[in-house]
Design goal:
372 residues, alpha/beta, Quinone Oxidoreductase, Chain A, domain 1, Rossmann fold, 2 domains, 7-stranded mixed sheet, 6-stranded parallel sheet, 11 helices, globular, binds zinc ion
Length: 372
């Protein structure tokens, strides 16, 4: 058993600066594992909590996209053994609710009710405490720390040869992209795709769509550096929406038709409405950008109905089915987390990394390295 203290990044309340605290190393219960964190991705969803745009109990430890090494597995727990290099998925399915029973881990009732609303695991308690006993709530597995406890349903062995720190990105950004491309978008070989906003998730939509055989992938963004990275990851065409009208540009590139599947990865009404205009007749639009609060968008009912367009949302992925497939593809080199990781950040600088993310100063992904 690992005992003693560890460093963790604590959010004391929304809008406050993230601070490193010394807290006791958490103890896993049966059905959970303790992981020594190697990498924790700096994701927009954490930022929504920091900025108070998504309600979450505080004080808490954020960080939900991790890689690391298993250091403790309680008896009777079905999990990769101690010493395994693993990736943790941000949707930690309970495995038993009516959605999990149908394989829809992305809708797990208990994950959203217990973890996302209350900051606990499935017994209604958190594994994290301050030395004085005060609870610290867990956002997913609370990965912005030297160690974290993860339900075994969300822990997956990393194939040999893949870099441990960068592979953290498989757990949220790539899982989310894979879920959108494979399930909601159902992209088939030879189909055409457009991706509106190529930030952390959008770049991975490009990479996964390329891996699954999309023939043409049009990346749309206002930042040229992001568009350059999209090209490296498989985009065949890029549109700088700050310099030209995206709808006209995509129509021009597709003979006036639009694309088979468009992904909206920003979550703003304007880009949502624009994305709808990029879909060809009979095509699909997949919304993956999280919008602020009660945002709404207006799309044309007549076009939706008469042109038989399908609009669907997609959040995360089906953890237990998707993660092994993602990591198999990664092992074969078809998708690569490290291609989009552009910065490594020590734990003590996590606050700066989220500030940079907020300011649009991070292309690709930054990964916090508690070990470094
Ligand atoms: Zn995330
Ligand atoms: Zn469930």
């Amino acid at each position: 058993m690992i005992s003693g203290m560890m460093r963790a990044v604590v959010l004391r309340s929304p809008h406050e600066e993230l601070l490193v605290e010394e807290i006791p190393v958490p103890v896993p219960h049966p059905g959970e594992v303790l992981v020594k964190v190697a990498g924790c991705g700096v994701c927009h969803t954490d930022l929504h909590v920091i900025k108070g745009e998504v309600a979450f109990p505080t004080p808490c430890v954020l960080g939900h996209e991790i890689s690391g090494t298993v250091v403790e597995v309680p008896p009777g727990t079905d999990a990769p053994p101690v010493g395994s290099r693993v990736v943790g998925a941000f949707i930690m399915p309970c495995g038993t609710c009516r959605f999990c029973a149908r394989g829809r881990d992305d809708l797990c009732e208990r994950f959203f009710a217990m973890n996302r609303l209350k900051g606990t695991l499935y017994d209604g308690t958190t594994r994290l405490r301050r030395s004085d006993g005060d609870p610290l709530w867990m956002y997913s597995m609370a990965g912005l720390a030297e160690y974290c406890v993860i339900p075994a349903t969300a822990v997956f062995p990393l194939p040999d040869g893949l870099p441990l720190v960068e592979s953290a990105v498989y757990g949220c950004s790539i899982l989310t992209a894979f879920g959108a491309v494979r399930h909601a978008g159902d992209v088939r070989v030879g189909e055409t795709v457009a991706v509106v906003a190529v930030g952390g998730v959008g770049l991975n939509v490009v990479q996964v769509a390329h891996a699954l055989g999309a023939s043409r992938i049009i990346a749309i963004d206002v930042r040229d550096d992001a568009l350059r990275t999209a090209t490296e990851l498989g985009a065949t065409d890029v549109v700088n929406a700050g310099q030209e009208d995206a709808v006209t540009a995509v129509r021009d590139l597709t003979g006036g038709e639009g694309v088979d599947v468009v992904f909206e990865a920003l979550g703003r009404p304007q880009t949502f409405e624009q994305a709808f205009e990029l879909v060809r007749d009979g095509g699909r639009m997949v919304a993956i950008g999280i919008a602020a609060g009660q945002a709404t968008a207006a799309i044309g009912i007549t076009r939706l109905v008469r042109r038989s367009i399908r609009v669907s949302g997609s959040y995360g992925g089906r953890t237990r089915a998707d993660m092994p497939e993602i990591l198999r593809m990664a092992g074969e080199g078809v998708i690569r987390a490290e291609r989009m990781v552009t910065q490594r950040v020590p734990l003590g600088r996590a606050a700066d990394a989220y500030q940079a993310l907020d300011g649009g100063a991070i292309v690709g992904r930054a990964v916090v390295t508690p070990d470094a």
